[in-house]
Design brief:
This protein is α/β, with parallel strands linked by helices. It folds into 2 domains: 259 residues, Aminopeptidase (3-Layer(aba) Sandwich), CATH 3.40.630; 83 residues, no CATH class. The chain contains 12 helices and 8 strands. Strands 1-2-4-3-5-8-6-7 form an 8-stranded mixed sheet, with helices on both faces. β3, α2 and β4 form a beta-alpha-beta unit. α1 runs parallel beside α2 and α4 packs antiparallel against α5. The longest helix has 24 residues.
Length: 363
């Protein structure tokens, strides 16, 4: 019997070693992509790794993705490793393959950041960069409060005043949307979508073409943390409720499925999410994507940690005492310490993977 907590890791380097070891032990075909633009905190090389299982021509494929928002990779990595160590590959139904994508954003994972080496939020980067970007007038109003010049009691109080005034006018969810809905105007801000495809964006598109081009049905589970009740895994479908893929996801996951556009999710409505790449790169396949979002702490605490980390990397010193404090805090907000949360993660992941495999075979 494997230990669930031991599947989770405290660092990117530890997670990568565990993942590659578990994948190899399970007979997976491993591939690695070096990020040429970034290094880890100790100067180490950073890799996106994949492990593939099943026949090369499998028509049905399960895809598990960890680390879209780097620091959240602790969760997704643990779930992937638990699936491997629990015999997941051997339990795949006949004709079904699996592709595990580990540390899609290795820089963010290694540095305990949500963003890439370009300060880009991957779940806002998959837009058409040749067209005009979505506007976010709310972010423009509060941008200076999001990234203050200093990080002290006075600046925090002023930020709270600005946020409270905005929420008074637009509501708490309106404030959340202004902050986290995505913005393309402030490269030094949070939830920044970028002005071109990031390395992770280009790489995952190449992986989709190389590993999934023969698939006809693809079920995607993208692991996230930071929203919702502690330890609960919310199944979020970020496509339009009118889309065929939403109808499939609803049939697979039932009332467990939530929709940002439908107003049933803890997530704000966002555009340019990472899973959009798969139907774009696999136009002949039926792609059914969901994000599995695990709750940790309250929204203000989580957003505060994101803001602090953003300030630190733009205006602070990572090696300073406050830098170490901020780093410890953001890791905790997205990857709570203790065995209980980690066991809850795997229980929900195992359940969701079961639903996805059943859904794949029902088509």
């Amino acid at each position: 019997m494997f230990s669930v907590p031991e599947c989770f890791s405290e660092t990117y380097a530890e997670a990568r070693t565990k993942f590659c070891g578990a994948a190899a032990a399970s007979g997976g075909a491993l591939r690695s992509w070096l990020n040429p633009k970034a290094r880890g905190p100790q100067g180490e090389a950073l890799f996106l790794d994949t492990a593939r299982f099943g026949d090369a021509d499998a028509s049905d494929m399960l895809v598990l993705i960890a680390g879209t928002h780097g620091v959240e990779g602790h969760c997704g990595s643990g779930a992937e490793i638990a699936w491997l160590r629990s015999g997941g590959p051997e339990k795949l139904p006949k004709g079904v393959g699996a592709l595990l994508i580990h540390a899609i954003n290795p820089y963010g994972f290694a540095w305990s950041r949500r963003v890439t080496e370009d300060n880009v939020d991957l779940n806002r980067n998959f837009v058409d960069h040749d067209k005009g970007y979505p506007a976010n007038a709310g972010y423009l109003e509060i941008a200076d409060a999001v990234l203050p010049k200093s990080w002290d009691d006075a600046s925090k109080a002023e930020t709270e005043r600005v946020f409270a005034a905005y929420a008074q006018k637009h509501g708490a969810f309106g404030l959340q949307g202004a902050i986290s809905g995505g913005q393309y105007s402030h490269p030094d801000g949070i939830f920044y979508g970028g002005n071109t495809q990031t390395w992770s964006n280009r790489t995952v598109r190449a992986i989709a073409r190389q590993e999934l081009s023969r698939a006809r049905r693809v079920a995607i589970i993208d692991f996230h943390t930071g929203l919702g009740p502690f330890g609960h895994g919310e199944l979020i479908c970020a496509v339009s409720p009118a889309a065929k893929s939403f109808a499939r996801a609803k049939a697979w996951y039932g009332d467990e499925l939530t929709s940002p556009e439908g107003g049933t999710s803890t997530s704000a409505v966002v555009v340019g999410v990472m899973t959009d790449a798969f139907p774009q790169e696999l136009p002949d396949a039926q792609v059914t994507p969901v994000a599995l979002e695990y709750g940790t702490y309250s929204v203000p605490e989580v957003l505060g940690a994101v803001r602090a980390d953003n300030w630190l990397h733009h205006r602070g010193d990572v090696a300073s005492p406050i830098g170490r404090e901020i780093k410890a805090d953001i890791k905790e907000r997205f990857f709570p310490a203790g065995d209980k949360w980690r066991e809850m993660v795997w229980t929900r992941a195992d359940q969701t993977i079961g639903w996805a495999l059943k859904g794949l075979r029902s088509q």
